[in-house]
Design brief:
- With 162 residues, the protein is an alpha+beta fold.
- The protein has helices at 13-26, 38-45, 94-108, 124-132, and strands at residues 4-7, 51-57, 60-69, 78-85, 113-120, 136-147, 151-161.
- A 7-stranded mixed β-sheet has the order 1-2-3-4-5-7-6.
- A hairpin with a 2-residue loop joins strand 2 and strand 3 (60-69).
- It starts with a strand and ends with a strand.
């Protein structure tokens, strides 16, 4: 059966938690408190300031992303997203499918660009994916992220016009 990317519903929250909480707890790729409660993690991911989507195959949620304006006011024409996939979906093209969906959705909403504010430089899979989808590294924040195993590592600002 094919992959479907659709808006998330409240009934998806438990499945979303199963995807995002382990990533948050690992503390390797997101600048979120690793001790964030499950309820607070889901509330953050599905906040009212963003559209949240899920990637589903054969009735199983494999990944999720959100889309929002990067800033208010004068910066509201630039989109921002967050992406997470379940461990079982790693390396299967799910991130690319969600990334392409996000770019299309951002264009449909009238955004003229997309920016990732804080891509952990050691998240090689994400950096390669975003570069393959046309994002450029436009900034480097030296030692901005405390990686639990590697210590202080850089964070990248990535950008592309739509």
């Amino acid at each position: 059966m094919s992959l479907e990317i659709r808006p998330a519903y409240a009934s998806d929250h438990a499945a979303i938690a199963r995807i995002i909480v382990p990533t948050i707890r690992a503390g390797e790729t997101y600048a979120l408190d690793p001790q964030l409660s499950e309820a607070d993690a889901v509330a953050y991911w599905t906040g009212t300031d963003r559209e949240t989507f899920v990637a589903e195959q054969d009735g199983r949620l494999l990944g999720t992303y959100y889309l929002r304006a990067n800033q208010a006011g004068g910066g509201s024409h630039v989109a921002n997203c967050g992406f997470m996939t379940g461990e079982a979906a790693a390396g299967r093209g799910l991130g690319r499918a969600m990334g392409e969906h996000a770019l299309d959705r951002a264009r449909a909403r009238g955004f003229s660009a997309m920016q990732f504010n804080f891509v952990v430089s050691t998240n090689n899979r994400a950096v390669r994916l975003w570069q393959s989808l046309g994002f450029d590294v436009v900034g480097r924040l030296p030692s901005a992220f405390r990686h639990p195993g590697l210590g202080a590592v850089d964070a990248l600002v990535m950008f592309r016009a739509l």
